[in-house]
């Protein structure tokens, strides 16, 4: 009789131990990590995709990022309650906007000795440190938004004010006068309201309900200061 | 106020009365370990001496110290530690601002609004708003004053923002630091019943600066008399808030030192407001003759001055 038949007739521990004696010596020691890879048929495709962003042409990379930035600009211009700005945040858009604004707002080098409007560095510092301070404030008050998400939203919502700056620059090419000033005032006020509405639409939900006003007020102050700098810009 | 105070004590008094009436009855009261001895002490005191009660805060200073100790338990390098300084709701901030605008002689600002919970939100953002209010109003008033002149070219003087920020933030942080150090030193010499923590002093100073925001905006009006009246009003409101806050902390002390402290506080406050007015706002000059294209209000102002 084979061992197996004997086992089936008399299933005793004794036999089992004899049969599987060798097996019990095998144990998996703790320092051998048990891991492996599950290969799926699609795997070769994924590998190609991973390395292709490294090998793709520069134009593809830039266009992809520009498209993402442009999509977010559209979200700011037509603010609805959506999560796109928060979900895939990036800081390219705020950088572009801030540099454009600072370049247009800086005083010309002619009167840099006397007092004048802000320098490039001053505008840059106000925008970025203002955004950082507002973000820290909202986090300290107990908001559940991440640091960079908040920076992204605040930076993107400067877009209406940058548009206002461009319009003011164009309007200033015409003759100076009270009408000129009224037009600029109107444009700046409209864009300021647009910025506030856009940023509130994105940021308000992340604040605790009884502290919403405390978190929104610094945003108001921030955009007010930027609007003031745009409104009082005088070309040389 | 007397009714509320009596009601509070009466609540606990009921339990004590029933316990006295029926010694056999078991009364279950859930209270903290430090609280039961103060009930019996509170009962006779609740009927009289309420003024001292409100000003000194003797009875629950132990409680608030315990609470304060329990609150800030995170180490100072964690984010949660700093979150405890921003633990205020919107209505609390509004209440504190209202308290700083309406100083009532019997009420101590710290005791009433802040004792449980000093915050850094108010001081920081009130100072930030004040900096921009002064800079913007200064530029605007200069623009309006020189409006008719042909030779004047308006430039937004951005340097003023940096200077205003330095002055205001230095005042709001260094003066409380000096005052706190001074009060600690006097506390070691003379046992004062009331002592304030550094954050509470920063809080009082921050909220007392709120009155200057509408004052700075109204300083745009280019009339000397109007400006000085505004200075007087703002100074009296915020000066009285500060004086009434710090008087209980120094009145146990030597009479002359107490008076000198209060006078110094008010003097520094005066210096701040007058200095800001003088530096950021040009004097509305009445001596230059307006040109033919000047606005009519300037001619009226010139006529008034002469």
From TrEMBL, chain A:
<protein>
    <recommendedName>
        <fullName>Protein YIPF</fullName>
    </recommendedName>
</protein>
<keyword id="KW-0812">Transmembrane</keyword>
<feature type="transmembrane region" description="Helical">
    <location>
        <begin position="179"/>
        <end position="202"/>
    </location>
</feature>
<comment type="similarity">
    <text>Belongs to the YIP1 family.</text>
</comment>
<feature type="domain" description="Yip1">
    <location>
        <begin position="76"/>
        <end position="229"/>
    </location>
</feature>
<keyword id="KW-0472">Membrane</keyword>
<feature type="transmembrane region" description="Helical">
    <location>
        <begin position="153"/>
        <end position="173"/>
    </location>
</feature>
<dbReference type="GO" id="GO:0000139">
    <property type="term" value="C:Golgi membrane"/>
</dbReference>
<feature type="transmembrane region" description="Helical">
    <location>
        <begin position="89"/>
        <end position="108"/>
    </location>
</feature>
<dbReference type="GO" id="GO:0006888">
    <property type="term" value="P:endoplasmic reticulum to Golgi vesicle-mediated transport"/>
</dbReference>
<dbReference type="InterPro" id="IPR045231">
    <property type="entry name" value="Yip1/4-like"/>
</dbReference>
<dbReference type="Pfam" id="PF04893">
    <property type="entry name" value="Yip1"/>
</dbReference>
<keyword id="KW-1133">Transmembrane helix</keyword>
<feature type="transmembrane region" description="Helical">
    <location>
        <begin position="120"/>
        <end position="141"/>
    </location>
</feature>
<dbReference type="GO" id="GO:0005802">
    <property type="term" value="C:trans-Golgi network"/>
</dbReference>
<feature type="transmembrane region" description="Helical">
    <location>
        <begin position="214"/>
        <end position="233"/>
    </location>
</feature>
<dbReference type="InterPro" id="IPR006977">
    <property type="entry name" value="Yip1_dom"/>
</dbReference>
Automatic annotation (TrEMBL), chain B:
<comment type="similarity">
    <text>Belongs to the YIP1 family.</text>
</comment>
<feature type="region of interest" description="Disordered">
    <location>
        <begin position="15"/>
        <end position="61"/>
    </location>
</feature>
<feature type="transmembrane region" description="Helical">
    <location>
        <begin position="197"/>
        <end position="222"/>
    </location>
</feature>
<keyword id="KW-1133">Transmembrane helix</keyword>
<feature type="transmembrane region" description="Helical">
    <location>
        <begin position="257"/>
        <end position="281"/>
    </location>
</feature>
<dbReference type="Pfam" id="PF04893">
    <property type="entry name" value="Yip1"/>
</dbReference>
<dbReference type="InterPro" id="IPR039765">
    <property type="entry name" value="Yip5/YIPF1/YIPF2"/>
</dbReference>
<feature type="transmembrane region" description="Helical">
    <location>
        <begin position="161"/>
        <end position="185"/>
    </location>
</feature>
<protein>
    <recommendedName>
        <fullName>Protein YIPF</fullName>
    </recommendedName>
</protein>
<keyword id="KW-0812">Transmembrane</keyword>
<feature type="compositionally biased region" description="Low complexity">
    <location>
        <begin position="15"/>
        <end position="27"/>
    </location>
</feature>
<feature type="transmembrane region" description="Helical">
    <location>
        <begin position="228"/>
        <end position="250"/>
    </location>
</feature>
<dbReference type="GO" id="GO:0000139">
    <property type="term" value="C:Golgi membrane"/>
</dbReference>
<dbReference type="InterPro" id="IPR006977">
    <property type="entry name" value="Yip1_dom"/>
</dbReference>
<feature type="transmembrane region" description="Helical">
    <location>
        <begin position="120"/>
        <end position="141"/>
    </location>
</feature>
<keyword id="KW-0472">Membrane</keyword>
<feature type="domain" description="Yip1">
    <location>
        <begin position="101"/>
        <end position="272"/>
    </location>
</feature>
<dbReference type="GO" id="GO:0031267">
    <property type="term" value="F:small GTPase binding"/>
</dbReference>
<feature type="compositionally biased region" description="Acidic residues">
    <location>
        <begin position="49"/>
        <end position="59"/>
    </location>
</feature>
<dbReference type="GO" id="GO:0016192">
    <property type="term" value="P:vesicle-mediated transport"/>
</dbReference>
